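Long-time lurker. I teach an intro course on protein structure, and each term I like to show students one example going from raw sequence to a predicted 3D structure in token notation. This year I'd like something fresh instead of my usual example. Would anyone be willing to generate the tokens for the chain below so I can use it in lecture? Attribution to the forum is fine with me.
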Amino acid sequence: MTKTTQERIEAMAKKRNLEGLYLEPDRQTIEEGVNLMIKIAMEMIAKKKTKTSSDEDTFTRQGGDHGQ
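-- Reply from a regular --
Happy to contribute to a lecture. Here you go:
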């Protein structure tokens, strides 16, 4: 029985999965990058929350939201 291209690709993918996609140093580098991206995202969220709060305070002080 001959293997189809799809079967060959699946066999290669399975082999790579068993071997691990990345070497340990690569995993560490990727993990550090992910952690940095999370840190940056959290800082951006914190800044946006601070800005939103100050915008709401300004709106209220300027007499906004009378009907509520």
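Some talking points for your students: The chain has one domain: 5-61. The two ends are 76 Å apart (CA to CA).
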